[in-house]
Amino acid sequence: MIESLLVANRGEIARRIIRTAKRLGVRAIAVHSEVDADLPFVAEADEAVCVGPANPAQSYRNVEAILDAAKSTGAQAIHPGYGFLSENADFARTVESSGLVWVGPGADAIAAMGDKINARNLMAAAGVPVAPGTTEPAADLAAATAAAAEIGYPVMVKAAAGGGGMGMGVATDEAALRTEYDKVRAFAERMFGDGSVLIERYFPRVRHVEVQILGLADGRVVAIGERECSVQRRNQKLVEESPSPAVDPQLRERFLAAAVRAGEAVNYRNAGTVECLLDPATNEFFFLEMNTRLQVEHPVTELVYGIDLVAEQLRVASGLAPTFDPAALTPRGHAIELRINAEDPKRFIPGPGAISAWTEPVGEGVRVDSGYVAGNTVTQFYDSLMAKLIVSGADRAEAIERARAAVAAFEVAGPKCNLPFFAELLENPEFISGDYDTALITRMR
């Protein structure tokens, strides 16, 4: 096992990685921006280094500052968490060329999956189902229009270099396509430095289901169950659960086999997620993207399968065997994760601010992965995620009941907070039934 780990991230995910590292006897090193100096993850690390001002480009995305911090503290490995530099192939290469251990997939796999068109083509070649779409970027509006006519409206217009639900638009006809193409291309150039655009079939009623994979040190790729991620606003997730209420044993077998093929196609190592769209009318599913990192929603998989995924990440990076038997993975019970964000519960607009009160729920089947405590300030510089409330039960009904109680007991004062939305969701008949899709929030609003 590696002996020291620098966590190149912040907030709840940094705190969560530090917790496992310390449990394993690994010295945990935090890096932080000036405005994050008082957050819990900094205090809980064995050592902490300020790497710059609030602007992420000058701190959490500052490769030189992070590598200098690793060198000055004697860190042996770097864990990138999610976001920031976690899916930056150049950073992964730089970490390894500096003689450090990268806790994640190889740079080649990150690069291969970072381009959505290249990823689609690789997956299709590997026998993973992909939705009808372009096999090369739509170079101009004429190419996009021709592709859409061949695929058939409605279509999704996507930034090829995008991810996390960003850089996407739906066109129902040619007039809408002209607008969405220009909008997505401009956004992609601004956000990702790459204006390449992909045109793909859009499914009006669809579920978002993903599979957790783990590429082991011995070269095998293991699929560790699926997660349902269909409760979304602006194509970004708010709630995740495992197992998916839409997936029966036969469909699960197909999902897991496809995810393993996807990982094997790029010689995947460490933790990753194969995201898919599921057509509930036909039980057909299509590859969406592969996230080459640990996901925000990984705790629901941990609770259902009894695995600490961060510990397994560290074992893979150390060249060690997993703590579990890959041939004997069996889900037990049900888990639901709610993303507690500093945002308005009606319009979902961020509302940062100082936290005057913070009381976390406790009880059987309740877990909170939080990045803040009372007295901290949620700033405008970073994502609005404050905490993840994860509940588990013997079945989905019990998990929902525990979630209701936990939401009622969770007190946050100061910033805006979306807890009232979750109280509403957990009473929604469509959500309770398990028969919902990615437009659920739109129908609720």
From TrEMBL:
EC number, UniProt record: 6.3.4.14
Pfam families associated with the record: Biotin_carb_C, Biotin_carb_N, CPSase_L_D2
Keywords: ATP-binding, Biotin, Ligase, Nucleotide-binding
TM regions (residue ranges): none
The keyword Ligase belongs to this UniProt entry's keyword annotation: yes
Domain ATP-grasp stretches: 120-318
InterPro entries per the UniProt record, alphabetical: ATP-grasp, BC-like_N, Biotin_carboxylase_complex, Biotin_carboxylation_dom, Biotin_COase_C, CPAse_ATP-bd, PreATP-grasp_dom_sf, Rudment_hybrid_motif
Matches recorded under Gene3D superfamilies: ATP-grasp fold, B domain
Keyword ATP-binding assigned: yes
Domain Biotin carboxylation: 1-445
PANTHER family membership: CARBOXYLASE:PYRUVATE/ACETYL-COA/PROPIONYL-COA CARBOXYLASE (PTHR18866), METHYLCROTONOYL-COA CARBOXYLASE SUBUNIT ALPHA, MITOCHONDRIAL-RELATED (PTHR18866:SF33)
This protein's name: biotin carboxylase
Originating species: Micromonospora musae
Organism lineage: Bacteria, Bacillati, Actinomycetota, Actinomycetes, Micromonosporales
